[in-house]
Amino acid sequence: MEIYLLIGLPVIMGTGVFLFRLHERTQKTILVATAMVHCFMTMSLWFRPCGILFNTFMGIDAPSQLVLTVVSVLFCIISVYMCGSLTNERMHAHSVCVGSLLFFLAAMTLVTFSRHMGLLWIAIEATTLLSVPLINYYHSTESIEATWKYLLISSLGIAMALLGTFFLAIATSQVTTIFLDDILLNAQLLSVPWLKLSIIFLVVGYGTKMGLAPMHTWKPDVYGEAPPPIGALLAGVLTSCAFLAFFRIAQICMHAHIGDIFSPVFILMGILSIAIAAIFIMGQKDFSRLLGYSSIEHMGIIVLGLGLGGQAVWASFYHVINNSFVKGLIFLAAGNVYRIYKTKKVADIQGSIHSLPVSSVFLLVGFIAVTGFPPFGIFYSEILIFKQALVTHHYVVAFLYFLFLTVIFFGFSRILLQMVFGEAPESVMPPVKENMFFVLPLVLITVILFVIGIILPSSLSQIIAQSSLLLGGN
Amino acid sequence: MFLEFLLISIILFAVVILGSSRLGTIIWYFVMQSLVLSITPLIVSFGLHAFIMTTAMIVLKVFLMPGLLFWMIRHTAIRREVEPLIGYGKTLILGGVLVMIAFLISAKLDVPVKQISELLVPSAFSLVMIGFLLMVSRLKAITQVIGYLIMENGIFLFSLLLLEKTPLLVEMGILLDIFVGVLVMGIIVNHIDQAFGTTNTMNLTNLRG
Known about the structure:
The complex is a heterodimer of chains A (474) and B (209). Chain A is 77% helix and 0% strand. With 474 residues, chain A is mainly alpha-helical. The relative contact order of chain A is 0.10. Chain A has helices spanning 2-19, 24-45, 62-88, 95-113, 117-135, 141-171, 180-185, 192-210, 218-225, 228-255, 259-282, 287-308, 311-341, 352-355, 357-370, 377-391, 395-421, 436-455, 458-469. By secondary structure, chain B is an all-alpha fold. Chain B has seven helices and no strands. Chains A and B meet through helix 5, helix 6, helix 8 and helix 9 of A and helix 5, helix 6 and helix 7 of B.
């Protein structure tokens, strides 16, 4: 019942926003109210044991509950931020933006609930299409270019995933359905050559959506041109959904006992993504593009963890949660800076600590968290993955991983410290009074990051353990 | 026998599209290809499921999508492809090579489901690859959209193997998603035209590094 409500509510509200010419203020209220109700309903799922019925289209298991919570909480926080930015910026609330946002939320919820590979594909494709109007918000030549690249590359990727889904259906000819539970239960009946072909296509397809190298080329463009809160949504929320699709593939691989063939592929893709991010972060001139490459890096780390197996699977899940919130924090804080400086170029933003003390502090917190420093969770998951690489005797992988992370830290710190502490230009701006709407979300995310990183509530760690058990981790 | 004839004509339409330069003609060929394609479910397995698929295909791919494409070229006042990235002769030869590769690959794969026709898998592979070739070798945004649609036609051909298996709901969702995808692409093509004064994707090169 909750499942239908969680999907239905944003759909109904979104339709309402599309159909009726509502006042700006009403639209914003609807957005925030829907996001909050969605968030509360998601939270209520934590207090009720929920199982999955066999061969139903939708159900909740541990990983989907985890990803759903991340999606719902972060969406709620970002919607509060948007309430502020929709008034101050050129971003005047119009129905297309708010409507698409609500439908986007519904589509992502559907991704987390899908227990059928066809339905999963539909939901992922829907998230792609619904994010297009959001990315193309400014209608400038650059944003149109980014949108076209995004549409073309994602559509190609998603077409590959569809082909992969059909191959999977051919491979499961003896099982006769492509319900996830059915496949997992009867994994030994699958036809192995078709299954391998299908996994390759699915990995390429959903990997494109996740932004793994070498299918990552849309990511810096899109993150660079989308408005900052939308960037936060894409980097924090949408990637987690794509990760869930990726996780399902890994699950099928493991149950069909072809995990040994695909874990090197995952490791290679992970290392390649981190390497590409390291190369391009070094001389980056645009801060949003830098965040795009940072997102590629973290997706690489997550997939690397899945490939290494064992404890690293636990670390991957933990990394997904932390990465989402960190990306949300850093995008929103950067958005505050862009709004005052009216540029995203690193060279033009200098000494922001003088003009925007509060947001700059949060930008620094985000930087410390994203590059993997204690007490934040990313430190812990990165160390765990490093350890797992050593334990499983992947010494070259461990070396490259460590090397690239160091390079990324170096490149990132050089750019960010210059932005925050650099010599302010002559026309130094007086400290701006910062709006509550723009600061409150940052505070909330920081608190969440501290809680996850230092305390790690037992219910959360339990559900992470349950999720990683599905992939044979511990 | 009749099914083989249809499959061959579907591949032929795709090859002809590779060799044409006028956008209007390309869309008409696409309409004919989709029309032939939408009859195939009825031949493979006659029944309610196949009938619904055929109707949905005709509505979407023969009427709505081509209508949208024609609206796009009228709205943006482009009639023909200018100097493709790879010349027409070369793309035709490449297309031929791709069809050959498709047959080679499918000879290696052994289909565990009920065989409908020897030609079904190779022609599906051919369509996917020709669509891909069209997407990468042409500069006009509209031709790239048509390339995507041809790819989708190829994937649809694959789904014929599974006609009795995939729930109708899922198939309908897939078709709807593809339609909305093309709709969104159409809107963006229109934006490209307004912002750059042309739908030539060669101009989309500002974002680098």
